[in-house]
Amino acid sequence: MKTELEFHHVGNTRLHRVNSANTFGNTVFAKCEFMNPTGSHKDRTFLHMVTELEARGKITPGMTLVDCSTGNGGAALAWIGRKKGYKVVIFMPEGMTEERKRQIREFGAEIIETDREHFLNGSVLAAKKFIAGKPAGQFYFLDQGSSLLNKSAWIQCGKEIVSQLEGQNVVPDYFVCSIGTGGTFSGIAEVLKARYQNLKTIGIEVDKSAPLYAKKYNLDFTHKPHNMMGLGAGVLSCNTNEEVIDEVVVVSGEKSWERMKKFIEVERLGIGPTCGANLYVCEEISKVVTGKTIVTLFFDSAWKYKSRWSGVYPEYSGS
Ligand SMILES: Cc1ncc(COP(=O)(O)O)c(C=O)c1O
């Protein structure tokens, strides 16, 4: 984390060439979103959402901003809210890491934990109930799962990727990225698809909670507990633009955590488990194609998971 956190530190992140994933002449580039001020990609999402809502006159400093999060979005909103003069309340499923909760509280926000059984859906219902009883004009539920401002936050990141690739005279063949709300994937994919006609996009879901995969392949969807915080909330968000997703694959938490740890050991960049999922899929593609360029994204930072470094979340049995 940077010591002096400023809004101009959000975005313009590095495009890292992944040395350990390059086989058969393929090249993997990862957009390093974990380098944002609070350690995750959600700084972009929430800075954009808050700025836009202010510009539209929906929120003004002094109000209380509310949202649901497994941690990254909560930290981003807590930081932005404090800097801009808002109170922040974050609804969060039980059992998220202590590091994440501490970070949110250090930025002065309140956390309201909701029961593990209903995971993020339970947090959304609780936030809606909380807001319903409050005076209008004093509280605002940003609702990153349902607000399309989430997706539009990622247009800028897509443009940065285009310019960084052009700077190296590279045309990407694949864009590979995990899907939670899908805002990150879809905003970037919309830009890349418009720029590169032959680009193939691959969305990733965690195997235990994969609503998009179930929809695409006509399977029954069930949400099961998992250890890939940020993915698999149990619902498909309107921020997931299916028109820009060519293929959906599922990855297990086990493989993702394993891949993350190996990457940290070899490349010394502290990334989180959902980055491991992205890398794993990039490598699977690299095994069957030659001379291709694959673009992916590193969402957040390893330090956010230190107290659960085994990858086991006891609250979420079966993870
Ligand atoms: C660690 C992590 N990875 C991936 C995602 C997915 O991002 P998005 O919600 O934009 O799909 C999230 C979302 O919270 C996350 O926290």
Short summary:
The chain is of the alpha/beta class and 319 residues long. The protein contains ten helices and ten strands. It has a six-stranded mixed sheet with strand order 1-2-10-7-8-9, with helices on both faces. The protein has a four-stranded parallel sheet with strand order 5-4-3-6.
Describe this structure in words.
- The chain is an alpha/beta fold and 319 residues long.
- The protein folds into two domains: 7-40 and 150-308, Rossmann fold, CATH 3.40.50.1100; 42-146, Rossmann fold (3-Layer(aba) Sandwich).
- It contains ten helices and ten strands.
- The protein has helices at residues 42-55, 72-84, 98-106, 119-132, 149-152, 155-166, 183-195, 211-216, 253-267, 273-286; strands at 15-17, 27-32, 64-68, 87-93, 110-114, 139-141, 174-178, 200-206, 247-251, 293-298.
- The strands form two sheets. The chain has a six-stranded mixed β-sheet with strand order 1-2-10-7-8-9, with helices on both faces. Strands 5-4-3-6 form a four-stranded parallel β-sheet.
- Helix 2 (72-84) links the parallel strand 3 (64-68) and strand 4 (87-93).
- Helix 2 (72-84) packs parallel to helix 3 and helix 6 crosses helix 7.
- The longest helix has 15 residues, at 253-267.
- It is globular and about 60 Å long.
- The chain starts with 14 loop residues before the first strand and ends in a 21-residue tail after the last strand.
- The mean pLDDT is 95.
- Pyridoxal-5'-phosphate binds at residues 70, 72-73, 178-185, 230-231, 272, 274, 299-300.
